[in-house]
Design a protein that fits this description.
- The complex is a heterodimer of chains A (114) and B (113).
- Chain A is an all-beta fold.
- Chain A contains no helices and twelve strands.
- Chain B is mostly beta strands.
- In chain B, strands 2, 4, 5, 6, 9, 10 and 11 form a seven-stranded mixed β-sheet that branches. In chain B, strands 1-3-8-7 form a four-stranded antiparallel β-sheet, with no helix packed on it.
- Classes of the chains: A mainly beta (114), B mainly beta (113).
- At the A-B interface, strand 5, strand 6 and strand 11 of A face strand 4, strand 5, strand 9 and strand 10 of B.
Amino acid sequence: AQKITQTQPGMFVQEKEAVTLDCTYDTSDPSYGLFWYKQPSSGEMIFLIYQGSYDQQNATEGRYSLNFQKARKSANLVISASQLGDSAMYFCAMREGGYQKVTFGTGTKLQVIP
Amino acid sequence: GAVVSQHPSRVICKSGTSVKIECRSLDFQATTMFWYRQFPKQSLMLMATSNEGSKATYEQGVEKDKFLINHASLTLSTLTVTSAHPEDSSFYICSAAGGHEQYFGPGTRLTVT
């Protein structure tokens, strides 16, 4: 079974609008961490935001926020006020328990339209 | 955030030759580094976990004799693709674990002709 599922292969958003990228995960470990990364066409992986399974509040980093719904096992990324530079691939990822290795979803390609 | 470098950024080699890719953590010591491979329009697939001073742990389906990993110091891990073939052409990315984050290198694009 897929540990990380991103059901949106591609998304379009108008500049200055908000967009939500979906991510669901599957784990039986009570301790885990969820990540979102941005990968522009250059290929580098840019860390955006992190949510720990025991964190009480949703993580926020500037224009990025993570809508963490633990019971539903979802960790959607919300980008507010989209900019043209936000056009990229976005990957949701998870680290389980004490393991350091991270499992990635299949990614969502976001295109911001002027 | 922490900086991880990779060298080279791009390499073209002939089929049958070996290629070495370096991954360095520039401002912190990384006891654990990870090597990923990414084919075009696909996700990152973990190849192996590189542990300083010990043997790497390979993911299922990854040939350890083909993808040699050496983690000789706390700041350097190397991946050597031996006897490369065109199907090994891919984007190889390393990362270093630091706290709850993973810091990624900029990647190496390998093309085998």
